[in-house]
Every structure is written in C-alpha cells, then in structure tokens.
Amino acid sequence: MDRLDLSALTTEARNPRTEELDAMSTLDLVRAMNDEDRGVADAVAAALPQIAAVVDKIAVQMRKGGRLLYVGAGTSGRLGVLDAAECPPTFSADPRAVVGLIAGGSDAFLQAVEGAEDDPALAAADLERIDVREKDIVVGIAASGRTPYVIGALRYAAKQNATTVSITCNPGSPLAAAAQLPIEVPTGPEVVTGSTRLKAGTATKMVLNMLTTGAFVRLNKTYGNLMVDLQASNEKLVARSINMVATATGSDHATAERALADCDGEVKTAIVSLLKRVDPAQARTLLFHCVGSVRDALDS
Which end of the chain, N or C, is surrounded by fewer C-beta atoms within 10 Å? Predict the structure, then answer.
C-alpha cells in the first residue's frame, strides 16, 4: 500500500527556529511559542477579503433559513463544534442554526476515533442524516487541506447545491479546490512538527470567531458592540444584561433591571422601550418591523 506523503505540507515541515526545543529552558520554550504565535494574526489578516465574503454569504443564507454547518476531524472538528456551541448563549441563535460535525461523532470530541477522518463516505452519511440542503452553507475545516472526511463532506454538499467553504492552513490544497469559497491561512511550520493544534488551531479559531460573530452582527444580533440577543441563563449573564441596558440607555442599574423584568429579560426590547418611551409590546413591534435591528428601531 502506498504511504501518505505529507512532505509538501508546510504545516508538516520542521521549524528551524525550534529544532532545539527540548534543550531550551522553559522560559525560552514558551518565548519561542509566543514568537511563533505573533505571525498567526498576520496570516489571518491576509485572508480577510475571503473571510468577509464568507461572512456575508452566511448572513444571506441564514436569512433564507439556511444553516451554518461546520465539518472537521480532530482539532479542526473540535473547534467547529466549540464555535457552534457558543452561538445559542451568545446570540440567542437556534441550536439548529449552527451545527458542528466531527469525524467519528460526538465521542470524538473527547477522544480520537481511529480512521474516521480517512472515510469520505462517512462525511456524506453524516450530512445526509441532517438533510443538508441548497440554502445551507457547509464549512470544511482541515489545517492540512487534505483530510478525506472533510473533502468528502464538501463534495456531497456541492451535489446538494449547498454553498461550500474551506478553511485550510496550506495553500493550494485539495480541500480548497473542492470549495466554492476557499479561505487559506498559511501558518507555516509548527513549534512541534506537525502539531496543528498550535498555530494552525489558533488561526482556525480566529477565523471561526469572525465567521459567526460577523454573520450574527449582520443579522442584527448586536447593537454597537453590545450582545443584545444573549440568553441570560446564569447570574453572570443576568448582570451583563443589566449592564448592557444601562450602558445603551444611560439609565441607572435599578431602572435597567426594572425594564428588563417588564420585558421578560429581553435586552433589545428593554433598550427600545426605555429610549423610545414605549411599552414592551410596542418595542417588540418596532423590532419586528426592523428585522430585529435595535438601531433601526430607534431611528424609526
């Protein structure tokens, strides 16, 4: 059987700056890691036009009722699942709106499932099970850009006429070639050779942050930089909700807390109610007609 050749992948190359890693002092070791991480933001910056285009596409598809579906294996899959899990509490997103699929299923989040990433048919079955459709957008994540499971996912999604996106850390990869909207963030050789949970993982997390945050901002889930659609499911988030209403309206905390209580904890409704001097029902009507935009509701 032919052995897989990874020699052409920059993420698998040996980093000349850390060849003596095991002989370094601990301070020099973490300094070397920090020095390598400095370049990650620059690599992401070079891909910002591609990232912005994907953000806009996600917003368009979500307005149509489409879903954002992350597909990955190993570290890449775990990062997708993590980003998806953060969307409901942060933006009151429907848990079905952003979904993370990882090769090997949910068990693979905590422990590797051997061989799962090598099976493209498994990805097709996973997407078929959740009924991927034309209005969905499927983001394949693989630092190497060659993971068969992820490539299989994009090829299946394309057959369903879904929008396909790739996130890779090696240029000119098969995964990028399989995507309608490729995002390439070359992060170079890792501190520990081939350990893409390091720089490549950091770059991936940064891109995912931009995709969901940017899309939900476009979908009116924020007012300025306030997360006005959060779900106040614990004491910290209740306090944050009060702070946001007080900040947005210039009111004291007692007034903000009363407004939130009157508005069933809805931050957007409380802000509009206070600033427009209308009751909660009228505030909700304004927000409905302004597609959830606090800014437009206040300007109406």
Answer: N
